[in-house]
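Hi all, long-time lurker, first post. I run a small reading group and we've been trying to get comfortable going from sequence to structure in the token notation. Rather than ask abstract questions, I figured I'd post a concrete chain and ask someone more experienced to write out its structure so we can walk through it together at our next meeting. Sequence below, copied exactly:
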Amino acid sequence: MAQDRAPTRIQKKNRATILDAALEVFAAHGFRGATVDQIAAQAGLSKPNLLYYFPSKEAIHAALLEGLLDTWLDPLRDLDAQGEPLEEIIAYVRRKLQMSREFPRESRLFANEIVQGAPRIQDALRHDLKILVDEKVAVIETWMAEGRIARVHPYHLIFSIWSLTQHYADFDVQVRAVMGPEDPFNSAPEFVETLYRRLLSPA
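-- Answer (accepted) --
Happy to help. Here is the structure in token form:
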């Protein structure tokens, strides 16, 4: 939306409505399967009205991913080099699990983008994400060298946290089909915390 004036309250509301509707559609159908018509219908807007705010499906998707990547990186940014190592890592695991509980659509949107080869966020993965992960890996390696946590491969440690916690969002239907009426998020925190405490507690 190219305008010199600040957007009005209605314009902000409509833009937010479009993004929320697009998140629902993209999470369900992926980028390729989603259409502008589906997003407009989900938003309760006409297609021309939607295109006033975003010129294309690509523009909507880019806006969602831009905001999502920043949100996704925040829990890792919070890993404090000055904190107690094991508690810092456990807190990171908890934050990631909580994100899967609160933002399942966002997790599936991100997963769909990665599965397709990350064509729209490749640069961000190679720069912003890599720089941050390398920085935190250096912190974890220092903790290991000091004997404050057990020695494991630091990159695979981070990958395992991502895969374990995001599984509950990306494979929610499968998890709930297997567990039945029990809410998986009631027991998952205790399980993942125990897992990483046993893995990382110094001998």
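A couple of things your group might point at:
Residues 14 and 53 are 8 Å apart (CA to CA).
The first helix runs from residue 9 to 33.
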